[in-house]
Design brief:
Length: 115
């Protein structure tokens, strides 16, 4: 069993930055593909970014050039650095940990971009 805990959400003005963190416990971390997803009210949950164990990354087109996903396997932590935030980035952000036969989610952290 893997437990994921997100932190770092909050209220920020357009153009600002936030750094989200997700720490995993309960199992080994390095073999999992880690990802960040987000969901706005009334919208489907969408993938934001993923990172494989060796550092391969993938981003949604809407966040390319603005967001950076990274991981520290020694600390069992994945990060999402969000720069140049836009109001449309407002959502609950969820951490995901995935491996064949295993799929875990954090509780979510609210990110609100507003002036």
């Amino acid at each position: 069993q893997v437990t994921l805990v997100e932190s770092g959400g909050g209220l920020v003005q357009p153009g600002g930055s936030l750094r989200l963190s997700c720490t995993a416990s309960g199992s080994i971390f390095s073999v999992y593909i880690m990802g960040w997803y987000r969901q706005a009210p009334g919208q489907q949950r969408e993938l934001v970014a993923t990172i494989a164990s060796r550092g391969f990354t993938n981003y949604a087109d809407s966040v390319k050039g603005r967001f950076t996903i990274s991981r520290d396997n020694a600390k069992n932590t994945v990060y999402l650095q969000m720069n140049s935030l836009k109001p449309e980035d407002t959502a609950v952000y969820y951490c995901n940990s995935r491996f064949p036969g295993h799929d875990y989610w954090g509780q979510g952290t609210q990110v609100t971009v507003s002036s």
